[in-house]
Amino acid sequence: MKRIAAALLLLSLAGQTRVPAALADTQLADPRQEAAARTLMETLRCVVCQGQSIADSDATMAGDMRALVRGRIQQGERPDAIREWLISRYGDYISYDPPLSPVTWPLWLAPVVLLGIGAWLARSSFRRRR
Predict the structure, then answer these.
(1) DSSP of the chain, one letter per residue?
(2) pTM for the full model?
(3) What tens digit of pLDDT does each residue of 62-119 get?
(4) Maximum Cα interatomic distance, the chain, rounded to a whole number of Å
């Protein structure tokens, strides 16, 4: 009987969802502040989805991050300062525009190297046809 009660309790807790943060899906009253928040949110990657910005993600964590961004902008904090704080907390990966550093060099150099390899292959292919 105790096992059945424990199983029922676990099933009822598993179905519960967390209440979203207050500003997760509510726009700010000031249109300029909301525009600044929206612009910043579109440049930040959701740490759960990893392929969507926090503006587009439905994940609870993204909602918390949206609420954090809106709350800080509402308090008068600059978007650049919020971005720096989030990067210091979650790392460069959270930004869709990571800074150039020794860790991100492969990320920035890979497209140039691949383009060079493609041009070299195309050039050698055209030479053989002549």
Answers:
(1) -HHHHHHHHHHHHHT--PPPPTTSS---SSHHHHHHHHHHHTTBB-TTTSSSBTTT--SHHHHHHHHHHHHHHHTT--HHHHHHHHHHHH-GGGBSSPPP-TTTHHHHHHHHHHHHHHHHHHHHHHHHH-
(2) 0.64
(3) 888 899 999 999 999 999 999 999 988 988 888 887 777 787 788 778 899 999 999 9
(4) 84
